[in-house]
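Appendix C reproduces, verbatim, an entry submitted by the partner laboratory led by Prof. M.T., so that reviewers can inspect both the input and the predicted structure.
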Amino acid sequence: MDIPAKYDALSVEDKWYSYWMKHNFFHSEPNDKEPYTIVIPPPNVTGILHMGHMLNNTIQDVLIRRARLKGYNACWVPGMDHASIATEAKVVAKLKSEGINKNDLTREEFLKHAWEWTDKHGGIILEQLKKLGASCDWDRTKFTMDDDMSEAVIKVFVDLYNKGLIYRGYRMVNWDPEARTTLSDEEVNYEERQGKLYYISYKIEGSSDTLTIATTRPETIFGDTAICINPNDERFTHLKGKKAIVPICNRVVPIIEDEYVDVEFGTGCLKVTPAHDENDKVLGDKHQLEVVDIFNEDASLNSYGLQFEGQDRFVARKAVAKELEELGILIKTEDHLNKVGTSERTKAVIEPRLSDQWFLSMKELSKPALNAVLETEDVKLFPKRFNNTYRHWMENIRDWNISRQLWWGQQIPAYYFGDGKDDFVVAETKEDALKLAQERSGNANLSANDLKQDPDVVDTWFSAWLWPISLFDGIRNPDNEEAKYYYPTNDLVTGPDILFFWVARMIVAGYEFKGERPFNNVYLTGLVRDKQRRKMSKSLGNSPDALKLIEDFGADGVRVGLLLSSAAGNDLMFDEALCQQGKQFANKIWNAFRLIKGWGVDSNIPQPEASKVAIKWYQSKFQEALAEIEDHFSKYRISDALMTTYKLVWDDFCSWLLEMVKPGYQQPIDKTTLEAVVALLEDNLRILHPFMPFLTEEVWQFIKDRTPEEALIVAEWPKQETIDTELLKGFKTAAEVVSGIRTIRKQKNIAMKNSINLSILNNDTVDTTFDSVIKKLGNVDALDYVTEKVGGALSFRVQSSEYFIPMAGAVNVDEEIAKLTEELSYTEGFLKSVQKKLSNERFVNNAPEAVVASEKKKEADAIAKIEMIKSSLAGLK
């Protein structure tokens, strides 16, 4: 089989991915092996591959491929999230472009469009993950809107309702006017924005007096139902018990007193708008104020906005301010920096809104999950510093608003049968609901047509929190074989930005519905940023095309590039140069393999001593690296595990071992050495495979013909064996000696083809194990152990021994003496200047300790160098 001169990543990747798929290597079924299970954080059904996905899924693939090699029954379950808000927004936009208004459609008609959109655009990202090499069990691919997954969500909703944990409440919620749905507190991002503070004059009823309020939102005056002052504020004693007139709408409202008002902020008079501010709602309830909602669902003003009806809130803000100014009651405006809540999904500014919603009571429900991470450590977070974030969220948890005013998602299983607020039942099916409704109402004649199902759907996260359980049908059929075998899963790899959204809630669900943790470990990756530390985003244009990177550098190159600098929990400063480094690493391995395969072999020649020693050394070096790699994996230091592997292969295997064993020019290699080197190469491929699956499988299959059962993907991870530390120590010294020889050769321009002699002084403790290696790599003709310095030679020192290389015939002695004499003169002058400084008591007594230590080291180094130069000069004279 001809080995191509160059490694062609693209053709290799397609070939081996198809091969793995054909032979079903990714698929898992319960058996007698120990399972190792990962569930993919489901990307949005309409998502496309970006750098965050690349990093996250590369790490998952590394873990799953390693588990496969270690003999586990590895199962990586892929899937997609229906992403209610994001997907519905895309479908609505598509319909709008076709001249169709969502509100003109029935729910069924809209859902038909949504499924068409999903079937056409959904799952693209999963196909893209295959290009990265993701070895998911594609036969198990799940979608959060699959029938069985939806059934599980509904079953859980009913169960929690029957336990009294789900309830319906009229609350102030976060309203996304673009998506036209409520959001949970965790789905709101707060950012500072520059706005204005408007000072507005209000008349006092039956008086010529006025008061001034300061507001950032003049358009909300139409919802004012009171003015509030602090009872201790002497400035407004005259206003107590009076009423004010709201400008433009001329509504008469009471002036109330409450210590909630900050006398230092604004004017000390607070407009109270209970329908549009959470704190105002608290005041309104306390003082029994009228509630006036001035906004439509899209945050445009309704009829309470009078002449501004239909205007968007931000347009109305300017128009109202202009009107107030024309009326002469806008006293002044000031620049004002304030925090604004925005929707995580649509980026729209959130509007506080009173609404009937469904809530899940979280306080008691979350206690086992809090304990599991912070007390028993049944679930471990990596890095551990995220425990503090987890604690903060879980100890301050609020009830979860789980209803969304959307059509795309699992419809809430509540059925209304009467006109009363509480005339509803909750059941898994309409048939069950009808029976319950007949019982509740006492009306046996109620029919299914009399029931009206709640139009809202549950929050997407309410399906996602069941993901590790529902993937194995553990909600509907809790005792099924797969749920018992694969659950709890082993590792979860995700971003810290959804530690509460998803991770914490999955832990809550695990203990509530399965009585145990959903996973053992959570590996939290960092965010992918550019070289300027900016978060990658489309708007900044700093996010590279993930598939183009794979095309340019190969999947293995990109995987290595991402992992080389992505320590757990730390942000990755992405640079395409890292992918280039990964590509070069792939080429290095390919060329090393070609070198080995290019050697002719002779079964009759004996194994050279240098090769024998080299093989033993690398076996121990490999074991040392393997132990280090295992330690890194145990602590989820995936980047460090790769770096150890990288150095082992690049430095120790390619740069040292192959140099030590390679035969002379156009000479054959002995069979024993070649077989040993190939075996070591195979060990390298095993530990490299999780990081670089395509390249390693290609080389593995080129080494010899193999059956599918012998493919690298299902090979065996190397076993840990004894490490010969003395041999490793001896090599380290030998490497320094070889380096010393090569330095002198370079300095003196002595070609490697010219052999030299080497003598060693002070050799009582010198390990002779690697003498054959030193002779080969340094092209040393004779290596002698001597008891006195060698004349006519240059020298270098390694530890306590001095090495001499006779220069007779190798260099121009007179020129060398002149050069060394000049170097000696310079070094002696340098030593004098250092010693002068050290003899200065003021300097020694007052300078920092580290500075003095540095000067003393300079002195010692100069003395040693002078001694070496004098020794070399003596040898030349």
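The domain at 739-876 is CATH 1.10.287.380 (Helix Hairpins). Additional entries are available on request from the coordinating office.
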